[in-house]
Amino acid sequence: MHIDKDSRVILLPETESPAEFKILELPTSNNLSTTKSYLFDATTNSLYELNEIRTSESAKLKSGDAVKSYILESDTSGAIIQSPRTIISSKFNLVYLLISILSSQKEDRFITVDDFMDRVAWSHNLPESVISNALVQICDELDQGDAKFYKFSLDKSIQFVNEKITKLVEFFTNEKNTVIEKVRAELNDPTSTEVVSQQLVSELTLQYAIDYVCGSYIAEPTFKQDLIKKYQYKFDNVDAYLAKLKEKQKSLAVVEANMNEVIHSTVKNRKKEQKKTIKKVQTKKVAVGKGALDGFFKKA
After folding, report:
1. Sequential DSSP letters for 246-269
2. In angstroms, rounded to a whole number, what is the distance separating the alpha carbons of residues 106 and 120?
3. How many Cα atoms sit within 13 Å of 123 on the Cβ side?
4. Residue-wise over 213-226: b if at least 16 C-beta within 10 A, else e?
5. What is each CA distance from 48 to 17, 122, 164, in whole angstroms?
6. Terminus-to-terminus CA distance in the chain, angstroms?
7. Stretch 203-210: mean pLDDT
8. Beta strand 78-81 with 70-73: parallel, antiparallel or unpaired?
9. Of the residues 198, 200, 204, 284, which has the fewest C-beta atoms closer than 10 A?
10. How much is the average pLDDT of 109-138?
11. Would you tell me how many other CB atoms lie within 10 Å of the CB of residue 180?
12. With bands split at pLDDT 50, 70 and 90, how would you rate the model's confidence at 176?
């Protein structure tokens, strides 16, 4: 077991049978000019993206305490990693990466899987079946018997992404999570006792889901607007509500600032008045031998 200061712990996905993982460097789907590490399970043809848990979100024990170090043991040796840096593996759908690549190429003709793999060098690290299974989900397919051809379809791609967005909205709505709590907090009007309408909650939740999926996985900047246009999603109500709420919050902030200024000025003026009303008490000096008790102590 070789451990050094740069060693990190990777939390592998659960598998029903022993898995054979290998690490690949692939483009980041929302920014094709950068790369990141992925895990590929050759036994199931599954792909996982690797993300490091930041220090502020360090791994937790069941007790809730943060992980400060790891103790690793094998049959013959052991080691301690003194850093809590942890990498988690999350299932990744290769279709997102292909959408970003093909939508940026703007090509309107049929190509074979081999054509695609010749153009994209990293694709040779994956089995051809994995590439073709991803292409068929977002391309028009032409079967010529001895060969299959694929042409990128924006409509199919938008439909694929929208299905993921719909599932994410269902999760946000039906499960207890921080996103729906954030949505309700953002819509909360502290000056009103009225309950926020479900329509506003639904619109903002959908906005969050669209922003998350498109922002996290799609590189093409116009893709999100194309999706919103295709499905005629409307956010007029929630946009108007949030704009009105923002103006109200600004007004409240101005009122609060003015009140604080008035309070500050009032306290300052009171202190000045108190200083004016306090008069210095003058004490009259008595000559030696003329005091009230001096006669009592005189010699007879």
Report:
1. HHHHHHHHHHHHHHHHHHHHHHHH
2. 15
3. 22
4. bbeebbbbeebbeb
5. 17, 16, 17
6. 111
7. 96
8. antiparallel
9. 284
10. 95
11. 18
12. confident
Cβ neighbours around 202 below 10 Å, total: 15
Rg of the chain on CA atoms, in Å:
35
Is there a contact between 214 and 29 (Cβ–Cβ < 8 Å)? no
55, 62, 86 from 69: Cα distances, Å:
12, 15, 10
Task: State both tokens at 256.
Answer: 């609060």
Question: Concatenated DSSP letters for 20-79?
Answer: -EEEEEEEETTEEEEEEEEEEETTTTEEEEEEEEPGGG--B-TTSPBP--EEEE-SS-EE
Distances in Å between the alpha carbon of 106 and those of 32, 101, 132, 158? 15, 9, 19, 15
pLDDT class for 242, splitting at 50, 70, 90?
very high
Residue the block writes with tokens 């049959």: 75
CA angle, residues 129, 133, 136, in degrees to nearest 5: 135
Both tokens of 91, joined, read 């299932």
